[in-house]
Amino acid sequence: MDRIFTPIGKRLVLLCLPLGLLLALAFFFGSLLGSSNRNPFLLGDMLTELASPDSTQRTIITQIRFPRVLLAAVTGATLSLGGLVFQVLLRNPLAEPYILGISGGAAVGAIGGMLAGVSFFPGVTAAAFAGSMTTLGLVLLLASGTRAVRRDSLLLAGVMMNGFAGALIMFLISLSKSSELHHMLFWLMGDLSMVQPERLAFFYLIVPCAMIIFFLARPMNVLLAGREAAVSLGVDVKKISLLLLVTSTFMVSLVVCFSGLIGFVGLVIPHILRLVIGPDHRLLVPAAVFGGASYLVICDLLARTLPASGELPVGIITAMIGAPLFILLLRRSRQ
Fold first, then answer.
1. Which has the closest alpha carbon to 90: 152, 132, 162, 163?
2. Quick one: CA dihedral 272, 250, 26, 298, positive or negative?
3. Which of 56, 9, 81 has the alpha carbon at shortest distance from 295?
4. Which residues are CB-contacts of 126 (< 8 A; sequence separation ≥ 6)?
5. What is the pLDDT of residue 149?
6. pLDDT reported for residue 39
7. Is 254:206 a contact under the CB 8 Å cutoff?
8. Residue 28: phi, psi to the nearest 5?
9. What is the spatial distance between Cα 93 and Cα 224, in angstroms, rounded to a whole number?
10. Residue 124 carries which DSSP code?
11. How many CB atoms lie within 10 A of CB 214?
12. Residue 166 — left, alpha, or beta (φ > 0 → left; ψ -120 to 50 → alpha)?
């Protein structure tokens, strides 16, 4: 009990309470509102109808919207946590899976697995993981040997690999059947509408990955000080870095299989949280989980309710918010 009420424990509780409330509100409105009922002032009527066991509204919420909101929350938490880890490992505040091409590499592997007709797990998932790890290795290889401009070279290598992954994706899509094209194009733009509740069970694989990152929060603080400083403080840099790299890449690969390419979540959320609560990863890791989950649930709600008819892929909403922020951060980093 005494360990909970240490200064960091108190800050963690005080941080998780408002973020947990934000996530609960996002879940509530995300489950009740959709393209068929966009007016929040009619929530009372919807709640009344929800209480009826035979109502259509109840079926829509429990069987369609709630699994979709759950998928959005897990995807947002994973992408946010992945961005946080990559920013620590590469010591670059602009690093995140989408910009570095990691998500694109996972998409190439996933589409290849789908076209080959292998099972979703472990076939498509393993192909996505292999694609993302290959992309990451190529980015690091291309950026090495230019230490004087390492930040710019890393970003340029990532953008280049992202473009190459995009070309491979277009090539693979050109090989697919016309009946699959519409689904694949929406999936590439970040689509949460095709959620399959039976596949959500695979998300249990993300829980131990997130726990590993949480328990490595203190070494992540030390890694920010640099490799030499971390070694002098007794941190096994190679072992910790490899564990963080494989864990976060696997998590990102898994959510790409479910949700497609959703960019900038790993950039926006860690930066906002770092500005608000500081650089301590013992607080940033749980905050990134709550913050990323809430952010993507809200973005998905906007994607469903903003168009006059139909809905947008959620990746369009996150890109419209994240791309201007990325340009702003890039200008600030150069200054």
1. 152
2. positive
3. 81
4. 113
5. 46
6. 66
7. yes
8. -60, -55
9. 11
10. I
11. 14
12. alpha
What is the distance between the alpha carbons of residues 177 and 306, in angstroms, rounded to a whole number?
A: 31
Return all residues near 134 (Cβ < 8 A) that are at least 6 apart. Answer: 105
Q: In terms of C-beta distances under 8 Å and separation of at least 24 residues, what long-range contacts does 54-57 make, across chains too?
A: none
Where is average pLDDT lowest: 36-40, 114-118, 194-198?
A: 36-40
pLDDT at 298: 93
Q: How far apart are CA 324 and CA 295, in angstroms?
A: 17
Task: List phi, psi (to 5°) of 258.
Answer: -85, -45
CA-only gyration radius of the chain, Å: 20
81: which residues sit within 8 A by CB, 6+ positions away?
A: 210, 213, 248, 251, 266, 285, 288, 289, 292
As a whole number of angstroms, the distance between CA 249 and CA 285 comes to: 16
> Two tokens at 268?
């926006």
- Span 103-137, pLDDT tens digits: 888 889 888 888 888 877 778 888 888 988 898 88
Which amino acid, one-letter code, is at 17?
Answer: L
Tell me if 305 sits within 8 A of 38, measured CB to CB. Answer: yes
**7 preceded by a cis bond (ω within 30 of 0):** no
Give the amino acid at 114: M
Q: Residue 74: left (phi > 0), alpha (psi -120 to 50), or beta? A: alpha
Where does the chain have alpha helices with state H?
Answer: 7-32, 43-51, 56-60, 66-89, 102-116, 125-143, 150-174, 178-188, 206-215, 217-223, 227-232, 237-259, 265-277, 281-305, 314-334
Say if residue 146's pLDDT is above 60: no
Q: Which residue matches tokens 């809905």?
A: 311
